[in-house]
Amino acid sequence: MFMTVVGALNQGFIQTLKLFTVTLLGAIPLGLVISFGSMSRFAPLRWLTRGVIWVIRGTPLMLQLIILYYIPGRLLGYSPWGTGESGRFLASAIAFIVNYACYFSEIYRGGIQGVPVGQQEAGLVLGMTRQEIFFKVTLLQMIKRVVPPMSNEIITLVKDTSLARIISFQEVIWAGQAFMKSSHGYSGLLWPLFFTGVYYLVFNGVVTLLLGRLERKLDYFR
Amino acid sequence: MALLEVRNIEKHFGNTKVLEDISFSLEEGKALAIIGSSGSGKTTLLRCLNFLETPDAGMITVGGETLFDSENTAAFGEEAIRQKRLHFGLVFQSFHLFPQYTALENVSLAGKLREKDKGRWPILEKQGMELLERMGLADRSGHYPHQLSGGQQQRVAIARALALHPDILCFDEPTSALDPELTGEVLKVIRSLAQQRTTMIIVTHEMAFARDVADEVIFMDGGLIVEQGNAREVIENPRQERTRQFLARY
Ligand SMILES: Nc1ncnc2c1ncn2[C@@H]1O[C@H](COP(=O)(O)OP(=O)(O)O)[C@@H](O)[C@H]1O
Ligand SMILES: [Mg+2]
């Protein structure tokens, strides 16, 4: 029985991992684009971007998931996400990427604005181009500032992936909960749901370790 | 003819006039000290020379080449400015070393970025090393800025500015961010640069240093040049009342 349950949970966990990875891959660059928007010298773009960030950060991700998954179908008469698990994954991925990109963008903005102007000016006076200054001087200092708050968000993301359960995305909690009714020939099992906690703990342990290593790598300068 | 000619420079921030009709010239191999109370426009003047600010009026000429002319700003795109500003070097009050690079990397970075032929990078590093030696920092070349004292950091910053061989090296209160016991080592380095006939403009509050090391001095107040002349004469026997009042505080 144990092996059957673990097999089912593993399958769910693969979906969790997929959502986690896709969210990071999408939100890390998208967040940079949004942060540039929120610092734009063009005021309308700046206010529009900050407005979007305010709404996304001010409402629950769970609500955003529900709205994104169900509302287009109501309006169009058919679901643009397609049917089944792939549709649920697509909708979840988009909601997660946009949501996390908004959080990341605020962290990036702090990181970019936290690098003293003097660094830029020192580069200019030495005849560097703006590109050279960004890539050779500012970028690494920005990354160093951004890694600790990003680590917090990434660890939250590990757990937040479970929110996709609300649109029946078949991640690990969904897989565990299925055993309460019936799944893989067993029914009325409570412990598989509790056991999913172990997956999150182990996964978070690994993520924390990797991010800690990155942080220490950047410890050589201040 | 003078190496540097500054003619009628004016600069406003919004409605405040920060520089008004600034004109002076500087001979090659001479050191010019700029003194004046805080807020008198000294930093803004250096920033204008280094193209970190654009003057609203006036002209800047180095070695006969017009670097800036407010009558003809069309010719001053970003790329042109990047080339022109290399006539000047600037040492900041708070160093602004690049924290992720060692002392030697700080000194040689900009030169390497300009030198596309990587085969020549060892030469640049050797020159960087020699500069650090001149600053008395041969044993600190592999240290990161946070591992250095303020005085050492400022000397690395001086080496970094010298590495690009500017015609004129500017200092903005190079010792003001330092603990008193560390100012000496930086002033000593600047003094030796003066002895080697480096053309320099030094904004400073160290009056004795300005008197002994600089050839010329300019006293600024409220964005205006109030008095200029031989450093020793002006500092020992100022002719203007405002200069006298200012110097009485030192
Ligand atoms: N970027 C700026 N915007 C507005 N005012 C400025 C700016 N930079 C300097 N000022 C003003 O210009 C005046 C001269 O400043 P500064 O050149 O730094 O003087 P100093 O270096 O002699 O102390 C001050 O009144 C200062 O407040
Ligand atoms: Mg100043």
Structure description:
Chain A has 222 residues and is mostly helical. Chain A has one domain (2-221): MetI-like (MetI-like fold, Orthogonal Bundle), CATH 1.10.3720. In chain A, 80% of the residues lie in helices and 2% in strands. Chain A has eight helices and two strands, in the order αααααααββα. Chain A has helices at residues 2-38, 43-58, 61-76, 84-114, 117-125, 130-160, 172-181, 191-217; strands spanning 182-183, 186-187. A two-stranded antiparallel ribbon of chain A has the order 1-2. Chain A is flat. The mean pLDDT of chain A is 95. Chain B is α/β, with parallel strands linked by helices. Chain B has helices spanning 42-49, 78-84, 103-114, 121-134, 150-162, 180-195, 207-213, 231-236, 241-247, and strands at residues 4-13, 16-26, 31-35, 57-62, 65-69, 88-91, 168-172, 200-203, 216-221, 224-230. In chain B, strands 6-7-8-3-9-10 form a six-stranded mixed beta sheet, with helices on both faces. A four-stranded antiparallel beta sheet of chain B has the order 2-1-4-5, covered by helices on one side. In chain B, β1 and β2 form a beta hairpin. In chain B, α3 (103-114) packs parallel to α5 (150-162) and α5 (150-162) packs parallel to α6 (180-195). The relative contact order of chain B is 0.18. The model of chain B has no long low-confidence stretch (mean pLDDT 96). The A-B interface holds A 116, 118-119, 121-130, 132, 136-137, 140-141, 144, 220-222 and B 50-52, 78, 82-83, 85-86, 88-90, 92, 94, 96-100, 109-110, 113-114, 144-146, 160-161, 164. Bound molecules: adenosine-5'-diphosphate and magnesium ion. Magnesium ion binds at residues 42-43, 172-173 of chain B.
